[in-house]
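Reproducibility note. Readers wishing to regenerate the assembly model reported in the main text can use the exact inputs given here. Chain order matters: entities are listed in the order in which they were concatenated for prediction.
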Amino acid sequence: MAPSSTSPPNGASDVTNTPKNILWTIEPIAGKGKGLLAAVDIKPSKLILSEAPLFTTECITSMETTEADLARALRALPKDSQRAFLSLHNNYPGKNPLSNIIRSNGYPLGPDSDVGGIFANISRINHSCRPNAVHSWNPLLNQETVYAVRPIKAGEEITLSYHAGGPSNTRKEILKEGFGFDCTCEICSLPETELKKSDGRLIRAQNLDDNIGNSESVRYSPAKVLKNCKTLLGIYEEEGIRDDRLSRLYFDIFQVCNMHGDQARASVWARKYCEQKKTSAGRDSIDLLETMPFVKDPSKHGSFGSTQDWKTEKKAVPKDLDNEAYEKWLWRETA
Ligand SMILES: C[S@@+](CC[C@H](N)C(=O)[O-])C[C@H]1O[C@@H](n2cnc3c(N)ncnc32)[C@H](O)[C@@H]1O
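Running the prediction on these inputs yields the following structure tokens for the assembly.
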């Protein structure tokens, strides 16, 4: 066992796990090697970990020299960082051990980045198809952050999503092919009847998501798309999905409303997106900072005003409705 209260290896910064504030420990997890267990109850939006990479794949100069490039970069690290790297899980033992440690543990440093990072602690976090935490690269900190998105009980495993979405057979196939393991998360291990129900919901979610992402539908049948968004949100609630699928859905709804000139609702959904990003990536999340201006003025976003069919002013958000009436307004269900 490697308790998280020990000093992080050189190059790895770990702001939360000081001896005074131990949120988690690294422990053996049945069937998954090691993993992170919560040491205390953790609430959503709590920063669990913020960590700089031990090193990045920027040192790789070509496919042919990958192993040699990595060996050189590794030798340049302090001894404890080298040990931390070499102790990480290798899912593909045999030739090219360094490349395969990267393959087993690397995270891209941002959604569009070709550069991967290896982390002493974050790389120990196992996958779940219903994760209770979300990771993201914070370019302002130059660190990967992990925030809780659901309440996590002391003793519960902290989990991230390596790949999200779809019914269990699709997910299992992708995880096996892309990451080389058979997923045994709590969703994939549900009893058959429950798994079937969950799969049914997630197949429906996939179809709804396809419709919501279809620009023709958003342009010509926005009322139907908005209805599908509401159904999808209901499925996410039922399935306990609070990862980036949820913030993406909020952003999609923002765009549907904004595209048709409904600035009042667009502003509400932009705010929901920002709040969810604050929970999953912190108040200094780039996505949050970039979207905040559209809460104030949705018309500044590129999606604004292809039509004015739903035209409202931003100030038209009602203030005196009860919850039920407000929800009806929000989903454009009032006459
Ligand atoms: C990035 S490592 C995570 C930490 C690793 N368990 C360890 O011992 O260092 C990824 C590996 O953990 C295991 N793993 C992660 N999530 C899993 C899951 N849901 N089911 C089964 N094995 C899992 C697999 O062996 C996978 O290749």
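We highlight two features of this model. Strands lie at 24-29, 33-38, 47-51, 55-56, 107-108, 116-118, 126-127, 133-138, 143-148, 157-160. Residues 192-330 form one domain.
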